[in-house]
Amino acid sequence: MPEKERPAVGSISWVDLTVPDAESLRQFYSTVVGWTSSDVDMGGYADFTMVTPASGDAVAGVCHARGANESLPSVWLVYIVVDDLEDSLSRVRELGGSVVIDRRTGAGFAVIKDPAGAICALYQRPGE
């Protein structure tokens, strides 16, 4: 991806909602906000990429709490781009936060809890 299209460090690059029944939540958000969805094959089941109807842009994921997502909390999880994930995780710990889910193998993200108890994901762009 060209640099100008890549999310900038410090920006929110994605949001996911992970729940036990992603199918019903997919339908809920389709009805409430008008998103359409496309299936994401997870090997035996599908998670969903939610798409705005006007632009066709993918804006969020609605995922089953299975497999790699099994331990994720049922919250709208924002992914914030960082320059160096390992360095950011060290700083989280130094500054009174905690790492809820350590770096995902191959995925380039980790889930943290800040000192106030709020949860988010830190994401390092591939190849960086």
Strand order of the largest sheet: 2-3-4-1-5-8-7-6
Unreliable stretches:
none
How many β-strands, per DSSP?
8
What structural class do the secondary elements suggest? alpha+beta
Provide a short characterization of the protein structure.
With 128 residues, the protein is α+β, with helices and mostly antiparallel strands.
List keywords for this structure.
about 130 residues; 2 helices; about 15% helix; alpha+beta; globular; about 40% strand; 8-stranded mixed beta sheet
Element layout with pairings:
Blueprint: E1 12-19, H1 22-33, E2 36-41, E3 46-51, E4 58-64, E5 76-82, H2 85-94, E6 98-101, E7 109-113, E8 119-124
Parallel strand pairs: 1-4, 5-8
Antiparallel strand pairs: 1-5, 2-3, 3-4, 6-7, 7-8
Protein architecture, described:
It is a single chain. This protein is an alpha+beta fold. It has two helices and eight strands; from the N terminus they run E-H-E-E-E-E-H-E-E-E. An eight-stranded mixed sheet has the order 2-3-4-1-5-8-7-6. The longest helix is centred in the N-terminal third of the chain and has 12 residues, at 22-33. The radius of gyration is 15 Å and the shape is globular. The mean pLDDT is 90.
